[in-house]
Design a protein that fits this description.
mainly alpha
Length: about 290
Amino acid sequence: MNWLPLTAAILFWLAAWAFNERLVRRTFRSPVADRAARVAVPLLFGVTVLVLWEGIVRGFAIPSVLLPPPSMIWTRLIGSLPILWADFRQTFLKSVLTGYALGCGLGFLVAILIDRSPFLQKGLLPLGNFVSALPVIGVAPIMVMWFGFDWQSKVAVVVIMTFFPMLVNTVTGLAATSHMERDLMRTYAADWRQTLVKLRLPAAWPFIFNALKINSTLALIGAIVAEFFGTPIVGMGFRISTEVGRMNVDMVWAEIAVAAVAGSAFYGLVALVERIVTFWHPSVRSGQAS
């Protein structure tokens, strides 16, 4: 056992913890400094986790086949950029984005139709709850058999995973307006379309963006899992399953890191658009005020 890297990692963790505590408790007069402190706290915490991870692996001499250190993962990541980019393009740019757009778009349109039809609302929503509970590991092989081994079958899996969260959240959001607000629109002689556009859709935006944020992570998970059951020799899921069989665990972690960064960036982009669109919502205004 090597105590030097483990001790250094623990000391760094303690120092970073104390510094983060000071940043969290301190009040900055400048908005720029306050925003920088908010960004610095999670970044420093993430760096601390990586340093502690490195120290534990090297201190306890954990075999890299079980848990590679971050430095080893970083070396493999930098040395495999062409492969990682090809996998990212196949999984994220083709399967995830296409399936996400189709699933969320169809879910939104069907929710509008359900809102106009009580029959569909009572008949389709229970079916949607049933289908949304189906495990992706059971749906993915069927989609591969139906649509082939290329990215089209992964798009089908992503559509299934993202359709019903969007459907349920949109229907719930459209029903969020009160009877008093709808009666007020009737007194203005507004028809169903005007009431939908001017009242009910704005009230439903927080619910819709909640579904969009949930689906941003579900889409990536669904596409990666679907690639385990058949894909061309490219893709994040294919690479993970193949490299695990070859005991190249550092490459597996490199793919996981790329997927985590891509998923977090996608989620952050949706959250940023939400803040722009729903600037009037109390949750957004309170966050800006603080």
